Amino acid sequence: MQAAHHLAKQFLPDYSCKFSRHDFTLPQLFACLVVKEHQGRSYRGAEALLEDSPTWRHAVGLRRAPDHNTLCRAAKALLRQGRVERFLDVVARLASIARLLGLSMRTHTGGGSDCPFWDPLVVGAWKRVFPQRLTAVGDAGFDSEANHRIARQELGVRSIIPPLVGRPTDRPAEGYWRRHMQGRFERGADAKVYGQRWQVETVNSMMKRNLGSALRGRTAHSRKRDLSLKVITHNVMIL
Q: pTM of the entire structure?
């Protein structure tokens, strides 16, 4: 809770409006949301938990526990895409000090191809580790010539993606970078680096084991918000 409060104070103002009641600061409410996710509670459950935990409240300067409606409204305000990106920027900065890796994320519900998510994920990671050299590794779901061009020609990032999209064929892959990948994978040149992709599955497993695999949101928008909070809480736990 203290780590989440410290993280939020890096860029959140104390209050969203000078005319608000000023019962709780935005960093305090964010810390309460992280505790809610960490403990696997509903908004009402988080209210009851914080009411019964005066030591936790005092650690971040709370005189009383926010009610569940306040926490729900805070989630809607604090977990917007722009603010989530700012959270990740701060996490990456703190992670670099602690010699940990900076992250990027993209939330989505329902089925579909992974291919469109390559651009925001790689750009997000590139911004947070620049000017360090970066290698982006993706599974075959990200395979496209356009994704290689985004990484290699626009960002200067080495991209490793197996060229397996499309019907099985003996013909060379279409596109310069996809043919380049085909040759390297056939020679086993990138096998060791591509093996690092398992770290993504490790992160997914850690979040499911530590924070649960279910979401409480009833709409696609609220489920995306829940996913964002899981990622931020996971990062705070590591820091």
A: 0.84
pLDDT tens for residues 163-221? 998 878 888 999 999 999 999 999 999 988 999 998 888 989 999 999 999 998 889 99
The 10s digit of each residue's pLDDT in 74-125 is 999 999 988 899 899 988 888 877 666 668 888 888 888 899 999 999 999 8
**CA distance linking residue 45 with residue 29, whole number of Å:** 15
Q: What angle do CA 174, 177, 179 make, to 5 degrees?
A: 50
SS (H, E, C) the chain: CHHHHHHHHCCCCCCCCCCCCCCCCHHHHHHHHHHHHHCCCCHHHHHHHHHCCHHHHHHCCCCCCCCHHHHHHHHHHHCCHHHHHHHHHHHHHHHHHCCCCCCCCCCCCCCCCCHHHHHHHHHHHHHHHCCCCCEEECCHHHCCHHHHHHHHHHCCCEEECCCCCCCCCCCCCCCHHHHHHHHHHHHCCCHHHHHHHHHHHHHHHHHHHHHCCCCCCCCHHHHHHHHHHHHHHHHHHHC
Q: Can you tell me the distance from the alpha carbon of 177 to that of 144, in angstroms, rounded to the nearest whole number? A: 9
